[in-house]
Amino acid sequence: MFRSLRALSEVPRLRSLLSLSLLARIHMSALPVAVSFLIADWTGSYASVGLLSGAMAVGQAVAGPVRGRIADRDSATAVLFKTGVGYAVGLALLILLAALAPSGLWPVAVVVTFLTGLMLPPVSQLSRSVWPRLVKDEQRQALYTLDSTGYEVIAMIGPLLATAVVTLSSGAAAVVMCAVLAAGGAMAFGIALRAAGFDRAEQTASAASDKSADRRSLLRDSVFLRASLVPFFLMAALFSVNLSLVAWGRSQDEPKTAGVLIALFSMGAAIGGLVAVSRGGKQSGGWATSGLLVAGLMALALLLPPVSDHTPVWGLAVVTVLTGTAVAPSLGASQSRIGALAPPERRAEAFGWLATSTTSGAALMLPLTGWLLDLRGPAASIGSGAVAALISAALVFSLPSRAEERDERPDGSDDSDSEPTAEVN
């Protein structure tokens, strides 16, 4: 493990860029908790929480590829600056609505959250589009897994930070904190990208000579399409967890405990990610990992109401940690596939499609989770996540075991009749 981490730490500029990109994403793990408390206190309904959060996720999904294409063709720093400010303004408007408008007017906030989602700073997709420019091919999946692991580490901090602010002040204060972290983090990462010389997308000779290829949708490639659907269902499964645990915590009058369980889920992901990095990123994200995620979510569903009303907290904690160990390896493998399948000059766009896939998965799951929570309770909502994880595992099985990257073909061609393959374990 330490050899792999040391090798990556010696890559020039990687430590600073990775650290800043992770800090710029900490708001993403804090915001679901903050918004859940803000909206639930305003409307008294988890269905409204799910719909508003889902509208924000839809906005993120719609804008992902567009932001990527703009960053590929223009300045990534400018995109980060503009979206950071717009995102903070959108969250401020949501807080004002919750504070001043009657609860019956909460559907108006759907428009606000959708527009806010459009402005999410694309830190994740821009950072992931840069990683192949920093490391050799054999280190790629290890770096993507490290990226996912690092995010899971900060994801342990985000929910705890949000619940602490909620406990000490209110849900509105927690959302304000998220707005400040999002805008400030995006600007800092944008400055770092410019200083490192990565403000513009990587260009290749084939890209300059083949303009028609640039106009084709990446989704026309059947392997890329299937690979992008894997994180759709994976993220749907993961997003069934947070809101369900928040609902369990509120029903037990233990919001702090809910934050701790969410953090433990992220801690398990960090542990699983470090184990995967120690293997150089290899042999992760396959059937064993996918099966663990499915089994863990099914077990968690059986431990929550209404299936079980008296599960000790330590039992929930153990299952949550074990289930989380499958997260970072699965996400790292998904990101590595996308990075391998995308042409270098279109990687920001490709990771925009990845962002669309993941946020669409969240948009699908959040309203469903809210509805199931109101109708049946946490066990049903987590159970729906287990079904989504099972579909994701089936898609992984459908992908070719190895793939040849387009940009490494001897003739530099992009043969749409052949199926490019990315390493899928």
Give a structural overview.
This protein has helices spanning 2-9, 14-23, 26-43, 46-73, 76-100, 108-118, 123-134, 137-168, 171-196, 205-209, 211-215, 222-251, 255-278, 287-302, 313-324, 327-341, 347-375, 378-398. Helices cover 77% and strands 0% of the residues. The chain is an all-alpha fold and 425 residues long.
Topology:
Blueprint: H1 2-9, H2 14-23, H3 26-43, H4 46-73, H5 76-100, H6 108-118, H7 123-134, H8 137-168, H9 171-196, H10 205-209, H11 211-215, H12 222-251, H13 255-278, H14 287-302, H15 313-324, H16 327-341, H17 347-375, H18 378-398
Care to give the gist of this entry?
The chain is an all-alpha fold.
- How large a portion of the residues is in β-strands, by DSSP E? under 5%
Radius of gyration: 20 Å
User: Oligomeric form of this entry?
Assistant: single chain
- CATH topology category name: Growth Hormone, Chain: A
| Spatial separation of the terminal alpha carbons | 19 Å
- Structurally, the number of domains stands at 1
Query: Number of DSSP strands?
Result: 0
Please give the CATH architecture. Answer: Up-down Bundle
Query: Given the C-alpha coordinates, what overall shape results?
Result: globular
The percent of residues in helical segments reads: over 70%
Please, how many helices?
18
Top CATH class: Mainly Alpha
- Unreliable residue stretches: 205-210, 402-425
Mean pLDDT score = 80
Biased composition (Acidic residues): 413-425
InterPro entries: MFS, MFS_trans_sf
Region (Disordered): 402-425
Transmembrane segments: 20-40, 46-66, 78-99, 105-123, 144-166, 172-193, 223-246, 258-277, 289-307, 313-331, 351-373, 379-399
